[in-house]
């Protein structure tokens, strides 16, 4: 049995299709990443899997439980760390954990033990009795991770776990996440729009854009799928050169961009003369060629046709527009 | 199904409200301010107020004190119920909604917390009123009064929940304050005998649940009332139950975003 399977999971808000026929299977013990820009539908997927939202169509199973008909069983098997803080500022760290544990019906002795364990796991033992309003952003996030683990969930969802944290705190959080996955054997699904986060943490990544899954694989395989080396080419006529390059047997995909072309290839250094010759035979002037190893950013560009940064803007506009539409709407 | 009455969850939701209440000392003092000034300044300012609808054995301060108690309860419990809007704003509502606790238990926990804080607040005010000259009733009067306090609080916590689950954020709050809360207490007979009002406004009083709360409190504390206590109890109880049911119903359809 997989930890999570989804079958054509779909969610539409009015006219906006936030999640479009997503079919995924995530094995037990994976550290799975949903990578995509803001508004790609990552959070919506997580909300459906955690029973906070009902899907418009499709089904999903979390730890063997149907998200539509076994909501309580699903809720019991998952832990959740939301994108925005979801703590009570007026309570201490320990009281926040205690609230959570009692909501899950944990007995006193179990509660006490587990609280010490999870506090130690995120290194907050000596801060447990401070009111949350005096916590820093990173401490709050760590406490939320600890809380998500309190009731021994099988699957832990982390929605943008390092959003808005400084680089140093981010690396600490990565350590905790890795640790959880390896030592505590928790299956983790995280969403992120940070390439380096997905690359550093995840055993497998699904690239999501406009609610659709564009590719699923390990970070290494994703990078290899667009070529071992990337040729970054500037030339006088990019359109014609791109078309010509695509016909070459040694080229593994071409991405046409504003003022340059990316072409994937093996043994990139040997392909530089081939490219120059090809261009010359077409009467195209090559201005520059450089080679580098592909990054996830390139993979993202390849599968979606855009970089994640420019994507951010258009997607946020899309979301805002749909929120404006929904505001008057009351309840479904 | 047996899970919907989850005692531990109800208890911990209540416990959270208590901790928040005790920690916000300035709020406790602050919310006693308005009723205190009402009592002192209305009580002395209208001490020579005479009306055929006000028995001469009762002075205005003793008449108005139960009314202000009802207002304290009404405002306190409606704020309590509407505080889920803050939880929503600060994200804590998501944390509550993702747990395997039934929506009914969540509403019950909130209601218990709201009732306790509103009733505590009202008892504090009651003590202040005693110092200011309210006559202490007999034991049965105090017990009746306590029952009415709980009923009023329960009804209006849930009314707050109902309103909050129909609102998206705190933006409409001043409209609710000025067009729901204030008319309810002005038309409850809390500050003056409702017979002073024109007939059309009197009929509004009769459909105002707080009117029956004020009437019940007044009958328990100073022994005068418009309706028999049983009528007050029955009307309040019906209103209370329908608010609990409506609150639980709306809450179960609440989307968390």
Layout: helices, strands, pairs:
The complex is a heterodimer of chains A (332) and B (257).
Chain A: E1 4-13, E2 16-26, E3 31-35, H1 42-49, E4 57-62, E5 65-66, H2 71-77, E6 78-81, H3 93-103, H4 108-121, H5 137-149, E7 155-159, H6 167-183, E8 187-192, H7 195-201, E9 204-209, E10 212-217, H8 219-225, E11 229-235, H9 238-246, E12 254-256, E13 261-265, H10 268-281, E14 286-292, H11 296-304, H12 308-327
Helix pairs in contact in A: 4-5
Chain B: H1 7-23, H2 25-45, H3 60-82, H4 84-89, H5 92-97, H6 103-132, H7 139-166, H8 173-186, H9 199-206, H10 209-222, H11 229-252
Folded structure, characterized:
- The complex is a heterodimer of chains A (about 325) and B (about 260).
- Chain A is elongated.
- Chain A has helices spanning about 40-50, 70-75, 95-105, 110-120, 135-150, 165-185, 195-200, 220-225, 240-245, 270-280, 295-305, 310-325, and strands at about 5-15, 15-25, 30-35, 55-60, 65, 80, 155-160, 185-190, 205-210, 210-215, 230-235, 255, 260-265, 285-290.
- Chain A is built from twelve helices and 14 strands.
- With about 325 residues, chain A is an alpha/beta fold.
- Chain A has a six-stranded mixed sheet with strand order 6-7-8-3-9-10, sandwiched between helices. In chain A, strands 2-1-4-5 form a four-stranded antiparallel sheet, covered by helices on one side. In chain A, strands 12-13-11-14 form a four-stranded antiparallel sheet, covered by helices on one side.
- Chain B is mainly alpha-helical and about 260 residues long.
- Chain B is globular, with a radius of gyration of 19 Å.
- In chain B, about 45% of the residues are buried.
- At the A-B interface, helix 2 and helix 3 of A face helix 1 and helix 5 of B.
